[in-house]
Design goal:
The structure is a homohexamer of 140-residue chains. With 140 residues, chain A is mainly α. Helices cover 64% and strands 0% of the residues of chain A.
């Protein structure tokens, strides 16, 4: 029950197919998921978001599996159904076990709890947590 | 400008000091941060939340640094100022570099963006993302 | 699977029918959507929320279509399924094209991303952004 | 550092003063808090929001103190600083003790935790939780 | 379409059954809802979350029905479908009438509205709302 | 009290200065705001986010002022302090009057209220709101 058309490969313009092809090649899969088929209604949006996902989720200072788990953490926090399913699937493909998934959820649940305790009690930030730059101190 | 008293070690009951002592010992530090000093107004709440943090954040299927970064991801998503400062400090202590922190933020930002694109366009979940248990299929 | 009864026109009290009639007349339609039929379980709540919607969404300093798009932006940000469907439909009826809808979503996605970058990095507000009233300055 | 002018009683139009007077009289206080002084930049918005607060927060099926605590629960969940301070103050005035406040926060924290566990694991709703109306069953 | 297995009593380990039995006994029911059957994939998580729910939701400074309504308020604010159904059912079982539920929703709706007005206009916190401890004043 | 260094133009690398220069030129201003100076700690992130903002916020199917107001709506909903200040300033520069700002806030407040009423009552989506593509119907 999408609010825009789901654009299949066969119906897609050449411009859109280039992105679809790159998604499949980058991920080593032979299908494109609905998220991209919905974005394809605006080819510039599709290209822009995909370029960003491709760059941000690539190996870097953080491991790709860690990045997928962070994505799941945000999606569960926001209650995004589509994103929780899709990024949990992606994380599993990259090696997330049941034990890792449940531990991830335990951290997400706990963080959402203590976030509200801190917000609700209006706990003042300890000066020790503020980085040196901001406090004009010197790191030895 | 806390909404409850910040209970210092000197003012704390024996029951509360047991928790403060365990926090300092577990973390290898000689001070207790304000979050716990605020919770200490309800010693049962303090003990319960600390027991949970101690258990969930310990090494397990996930690395403690990964857990701290997940905590930061949730806190930034929720806009919790106290938690963002405290868990970023904790993550840095466990080895998070500037490059890792910025990459973490890039993933958090991206996930928050695509969460809303999926929600706003009401993209239907691809059957491929639904685990076998739920679809009554068999893993080979 | 509503948590309260969906009250149809035929079952509605005279007090509720007055609101239903006004909704249909104001919008130039011959049916009432489920949101109001759910609120009708508390006729005072129904009347109060409808009076507010009628007043706030009317033409004013902002164009009604712009208002509907702002409504969609908030609903997509909050992940409210019902509201995203209903206000997207309303916006389309007021002239929102596919191109406008996708551009709206692009802004919503981007804002949700940069909101978290600003929150997560704890970027200090530039004094230039604080209005004169608050800074005791003078506009020339 | 408000984004609109804070309109003091002395500067206020007659239309605005009527609302300020009603706020003070209804609450039995001799001052008006900043929230209303900010809304006063749009007298219709001020009158509409105040009429709503006055009606919704009055005694009804729920006790006014319970309502204030629900308000605090929502405000802490959303991380609204102003609202957390103002409604905690209001709840204290209506009799909320330290013990009640901390217990309220414990429930808020817990609910925010389990909300994400349910969202993240995508737990299916048990049919037993769906009311009879929706399931076409009969209450004996 | 859960992301983890729903573990039925018959399939559960002895460790998990102890928790299931305690849930049923504490609540005076003869079935366990899906939330716990999903958490059971991590027996330590199950035990920890249940211990917390059992302790926090028990009678204390606040009435159990009030606590359930606060739970519903948070769940509706976060848009958690599972939690809204399950805790509304629990609140109804503890005596929440239709009138109370609708009044609860009215407060939740209102708080979500004024939270954004305060956030959007950046209304400064009135010093009167800041408790004495924080302002170094004295309560007579 | 930023969590990363605020990188001034003088300290910036050539790569970062290119972006700073483009920001100033595109906006017709002679200064760069802190958001970008914080992102500059990761030059690739800076370039990527700026490219996106530049493209998305440019005139298109929607007017740039409308886009800024949508940005403010999202930022107020999320409670992002930095973003609310910066995009309100941007919207004012593009012509948003006090009346428009207050009307914008009225819509944002209302949408946040009805989002929770729909979520909390679990109102079923009316089939009339589901677009033809999804319902396999035909537009005449």
């Amino acid at each position: 029950m999408s609010l825009v058309k789901i654009i299949e490969y066969e119906q897609a313009s050449a411009e859109v197919r280039v992105v679809y092809d790159d998604i499949m090649k980058t991920r080593g899969v032979d299908w494109v998921n609905n998220f991209w088929k919905a974005l394809a209604n605006d080819p510039a949006l599709l290209a822009r978001v995909w370029a960003q996902v491709k760059q941000v989720m690539a190996p870097g200072a953080l491991d790709p599996l860690v990045k997928e788990m962070i994505y799941v953490a945000v999606s569960a926090t926001n209650g995004c159904e589509y994103c929780t399913y899709s990024h949990t699937a992606a994380a599993r493909k990259k090696g997330m076990t049941d034990a890792m998934f449940l531990e991830l959820m335990a951290v997400v649940g706990l963080a959402n709890q203590t976030n509200r305790l801190a917000n609700g009690l209006r706990v003042p930030v300890d000066p020790q947590f503020i980085p040196c730059e901001a406090r004009s101190c010197r790191r030895a």
